[in-house]
Amino acid sequence: EELVIPYFFEGDQRWHRYYPDFLVHIKDGKGQMRVWMVEIKPYKQTHPPKNATASQRRRQLKETIEYAKNQSKWAAAKRFCDAKGWTFAVVTEKELYPSRT
What we know:
Layout: E1 5-9, E2 14-18, E3 22-27, E4 33-40, H1 57-84, E5 87-91, H2 93-96
Parallel strand pairs: 4-5
Antiparallel strand pairs: 1-2, 3-4
């Protein structure tokens, strides 16, 4: 069963649907089941784009919109998880492969 989280994106003033990558159920040291909603993204997409030269403006605009959309998705996911007592996490290659970065 897919988990769908609605979110509103200010950039286009429309509602969209967010599908998180994983739900992970983990039993902690006390035997309690914990649920983590996990999103896997490249590190570059988790930070605002850097300033671009004139020839790179189109790419920068696209990256800025994608970053803003991700922020809207993740805010909605965090609210959803908080309401359920779950944890939301965005994981990048820096967490997956710390010795490579």
